[in-house]
């Protein structure tokens, strides 16, 4: 007999049993650790943890309840069960926020009772005053909260045994360790699920974006063909031109929304706040949304009491919020529906409400309608256009103004209500009138010498043609180097420069032009797809007088040409 075998043979039986128990414990803990580290499926993770806790604590049965409340703040979800069939729990109600369960679900700490039937917290709540009839027999009771790294109480592990005094200090420590591993594993599983959901929404968004971009392209192509075939038919040509304008506005809106979301996400959206009569912004929004509302034969009711409510806000952005909500109601209401827009003052807040009697929002979606790329699944046949970012823009723009927006609906076919609350402006509510005298469309003033520079030849050609039709003398160039060569001979009064170009970009061309004596007083205008504040700063530093974002509104360009001014 070897020395080791002799030592084991001389060890008392009770000590051997302790060693075996310790080995089983270490083996179980190791198995659990490996499993939760490798597993990303939430249900499997929680089942592994529940089984291990039941085994290590000596419980007859165990369960994990997810910490989710109903509207009354009382109901929790049964997620896993160990030691007994799940059906044994199916006929009983979920645990409520009673004196026994509350400490666990609120994260106050571990609850252990040698005999729960004798615990002073037991049986104090209606209607059962204890366990319902037929409930699994529980005398020994052990409950441990599962708390995430952020401090969120994810739920609780609960263990029971029909005999009293089963759970010990050691059981409590072991289960507490298991709960810590469970919290980490659940956090990881939820993060993995969130990434998968985000990836799914991204794929859906890209597919939707492709669809939304194709929608205007089809009628644009048709309109181009109509113009080609109907040169002598003024009615058909006019109709085609109107179609092109509508679809162009749709494309611009899509791109502007995408850029706005990007700016807000990066914290680069700047608000131009002023003391604003909110009824003015609401009227601006109504005018923006009126074509869609009228095209679907809706009836719009407007109520503004009191007439003037002042807030510190960016007029254009607040009007964008209200227009998005009105468009949302118009799109998701059957033709001939009713839409209401109202303005009121409640305490220290201005409140704008947009309500409709349309198709409504499912209850499960109410908390998600403002999430990025989220689109509500409505009844078959209802419109599903849009990128799923309009309501995200609404919420973020409202929050940038220090306000809130909420959605209400009783479900499908029950209409929807969106409520925007903005803090009132400080100080006296005195109207501030602003008047502008924009140039008439088509009035481009005196004949100008203009150089158009863009590496996109179609863009340069079409803009040049537009300017020539307005009576200007125009030259074209397709990169910065060619622009400098043509400019030296042509000596333009106004140069419209793209920024991103080969050989020499717009910034470089602008700097070089400013070095030439004849060009120091000429007007340089950046026409570019880059429209953030940093882009405008770079344009100013390069010597540009104005910065306009493509596609440029022809009327805005005409107004600039009426009276060219250096800023």
Report what the structure shows:
The strands form four sheets. Strands 2-1-5-4-3 form a five-stranded antiparallel sheet. Helix content is 44%, strand content 18%. The chain folds into three domains: 179 residues, Beta-Lactamase, CATH 3.30.450; 143 residues, Histidine kinase-like ATPase, C-terminal domain (Heat Shock Protein 90), CATH 3.30.565.10; 114 residues, Rossmann fold (3-Layer(aba) Sandwich). The longest helix is centred in the middle third of the chain and has 61 residues. By secondary structure, it is an alpha/beta fold. The protein has 15 helices and 17 strands. Helix 3 runs antiparallel to helix 6, helix 7 crosses helix 10 and helix 9 runs antiparallel to helix 10. The radius of gyration is 34 Å and the shape is elongated.
């Amino acid at each position: 007999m070897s020395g080791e075998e002799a030592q084991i043979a001389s060890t008392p039986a009770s000590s051997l049993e302790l060693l075996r128990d310790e080995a089983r414990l270490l083996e179980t803990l190791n198995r659990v650790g490996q499993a939760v580290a490798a597993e990303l499926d939430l249900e499997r993770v929680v089942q592994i943890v529940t089984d291990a806790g039941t085994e290590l604590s000596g419980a007859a049965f165990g369960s994990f309840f997810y910490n989710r409340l109903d509207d009354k703040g009382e109901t929790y979800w049964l997620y896993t069960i160990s030691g007994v069939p799940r059906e044994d729990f199916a006929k009983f109600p979920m645990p409520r926020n009673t004196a026994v369960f509350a400490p666990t679900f609120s994260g106050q700490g571990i609850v252990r009772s040698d005999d729960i039937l004798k615990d002073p917290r037991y049986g104090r709540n209606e209607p059962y005053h204890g366990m319902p009839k037929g409930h699994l027999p529980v005398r020994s009771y052990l409950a441990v909260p599962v708390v995430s790294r952020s401090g969120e109480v994810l739920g609780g592990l609960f263990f029971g045994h029909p005999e009293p005094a089963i759970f010990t200090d050691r059981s409590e420590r072991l289960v507490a360790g298991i709960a810590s591993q469970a919290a980490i594993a659940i956090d990881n599983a939820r993060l993995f699920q969130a990434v998968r959901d985000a990836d799914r929404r991204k794929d859906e968004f890209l597919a939707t974006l492709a669809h939304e971009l194709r929608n205007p392209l089809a009628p644009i192509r048709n309109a181009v063909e109509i113009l080609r075939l109907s040169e002598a038919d003024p009615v058909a040509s006019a109709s085609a031109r109107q179609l092109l304008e509508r679809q162009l506005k749709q494309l611009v809106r899509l791109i502007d929304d995408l850029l706005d979301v990007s700016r807000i996400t990066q914290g680069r959206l700047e608000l131009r706040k002023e003391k604003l009569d909110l009824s003015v912004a609401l009227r601006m929004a109504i005018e923006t949304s009126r074509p869609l509302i009228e095209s679907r034969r809706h009836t719009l009711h407007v109520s503004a009491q009191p007439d003037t409510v002042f807030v510190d806000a960016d007029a254009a952005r607040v009007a964008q919020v209200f227009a998005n909500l009105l468009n949302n109601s118009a799109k998701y209401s059957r033709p001939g529906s009713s839409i209401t827009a109202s303005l009121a003052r409640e305490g220290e807040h201005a409140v704008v409400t947009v309500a409709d009697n349309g198709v409504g929002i499912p209850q499960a979606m109410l908390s998600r309608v403002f999430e990025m790329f989220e689109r509500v699944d409505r009844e078959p046949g209802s419109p599903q256009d849009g990128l799923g970012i309009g309501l995200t823009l609404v919420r973020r723009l409202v929050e940038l103004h220090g306000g809130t927006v909420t959605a209400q609906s009783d479900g499908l076919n029950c209409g929807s209500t969106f409520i925007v609350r903005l803090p009132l402006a400080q100080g006296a509510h005195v109207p501030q009138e602003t008047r502008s005298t924009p140039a008439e469309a088509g009035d481009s003033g005196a004949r100008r010498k203009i150089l158009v520079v863009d590496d996109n030849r179609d863009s340069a050609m079409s803009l040049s043609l537009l300017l020539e039709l307005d009576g200007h003398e125009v030259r074209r160039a397709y990169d910065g180097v060619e622009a400098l060569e043509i400019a030296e001979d042509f000596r333009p009064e106004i140069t419209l420069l793209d920024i991103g170009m080969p050989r020499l970009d717009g910034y470089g061309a602008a700097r070089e032009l400013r070095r030439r004596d004849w060009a120091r007083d000429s007007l340089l205008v950046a026409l570019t797809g880059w429209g953030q504040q940093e882009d405008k700063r770079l344009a100013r530093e390069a010597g540009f007088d104005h910065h306009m974002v493509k596609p440029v509104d022809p009327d805005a360009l005409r107004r600039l040409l009426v009276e060219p001014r250096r800023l």
